[in-house]
Amino acid sequence: MRNPQYWLFLFMSFTVLFELYSVIIYYMDCESFDFSI
Questions:
Q1: Average of pLDDT values for 12-37?
Q2: Which of 1, 7, 10, 18 has the fewest C-beta atoms lying within 10 Å of its C-beta?
Q3: How many Cα atoms are found within 13 Å in the side-chain-facing hemisphere of 33?
Q4: CA 12/CA 16 separation, integer angstroms
Q5: What's the chain look like in SS3?
Q6: What is the mean pLDDT of residues 2-26?
Q7: Roughly how many angstroms between the first and final C-alpha of the chain, as a whole number?
Q8: What's the maximum distance between 2 C-alpha atoms anywhere in the chain?
Q9: Model confidence, pTM
């Protein structure tokens, strides 16, 4: 029994996690760059 809403929820949660991870990596990169200078 494959539920389309389940896959949609999975995809959305994965997208949100990926966005959050990208933002954190970007912020840490800026911080390290700031400390570097």
A1: 83
A2: 1
A3: 6
A4: 6
A5: CCCHHHHHHHHHHHHHHHHHHHHHHHHHHHHHHHHHC
A6: 92
A7: 56
A8: 56
A9: 0.55
Instruction: Give CA–CA dist 21/4, Å, rounded.
Output: 26
Residue 13 has φ and ψ, to the nearest 5°, of -65, -40
Rounded to an integer, what distance in angstroms lies between the CA atom of residue 7 and that of residue 17?
15
Structure confidence at residue 28 (pLDDT): 83
Which residue carries 């760059």 as its tokens?
33
Cα 4 to Cα 22: distance, rounded to the nearest angstrom: 27
